[in-house]
Structures are given as C-alpha cells and as structure tokens.
Design goal:
Layout (H helix, E strand, L loop, with lengths): L7 H48 L19 H12 L5 E2 L4 H10 L5 E2 L9
Length: 123
C-alpha cells in the first residue's frame, strides 16, 4: 500500500511537464526581450519624430509644414542652423538611434557627427 509505483507513464508525464515549463519560460523570456527591443526602438523613433516636428514648427501659426515642403524655417531650426554654419555649435550624436538621427539631420541640412565608440554596445 505504501509502495510507490514508478512506471513509463509517470516518466513521460514528468518529461512532458518539464518540456512545457521550458517552453513557457522560453516564451516569456522571448516576449520580454521582444517587448523591450520594440519599446526601445519605438521610443527612439518617437523622440526623433518629435524632434523633427519641433524643428518644423512654423514661426507664426505653429502648424507643421508638409513633409515634402522646403526645409523648415522655424525659429529653432534657424538658430541651430546659424550656430552650426558659423562653427559655434557642433552636434555629436551617440546611442543606438544615432544613425537614424543622423539621417534626420541630413534631411534638415544640418551637419552632425556620430560618436562611433558609443555604437559598440548597440545590437
């Protein structure tokens, strides 16, 4: 009566349970890292788009110009462009979104420099 019976069915059940546990742990880990990566990339894209929107604000109305329009002529853009062109301001980009930000600045015709040492930890 007090004797435990171990057989083939019990071993299959144990291995199946471990397999399920491994699957669920792997799924959770993958989901979390995927969410984290998506959140990071989405945040960087959101910050870049917000920065572009701030530079594209018109002086008087505060409305954004259409994407295909001439370079933006807002106050922020004019001041940054003037300081960069005169050599009083240099913009150095670092971090994982530096390359994307560099492309955005090129679209705005503003010279920037990417710090490549900071990009080693990305990806």
């Amino acid at each position: 009566m007090g004797e435990e019976k171990k057989g083939k069915n019990e071993q299959c059940w144990t291995h199946g349970r471990q397999k399920d546990l491994g699957y669920h742990l792997g799924y959770n880990l993958g989901f979390e890292s995927g969410f984290e990566k998506g959140y990071t990339e989405g945040s960087a894209l959101g910050y870049n788009n917000g920065f572009l929107a701030a530079l594209r604000l018109s002086e008087g109305s505060g409305a954004e110009e259409s994407p295909g329009a001439d370079p933006p002529y807002g106050r922020v853009y004019q001041v940054i462009r003037k300081l960069v062109d005169s050599g009083q301001l240099s913009i150095f980009l670092s971090g994982c979104a530096a390359r994307e930000a560099e492309t955005l600045f090129k679209l705005l015709l503003v010279d920037v420099h990417v710090v490549t040492k900071a990009l080693d930890n990305c990806r």
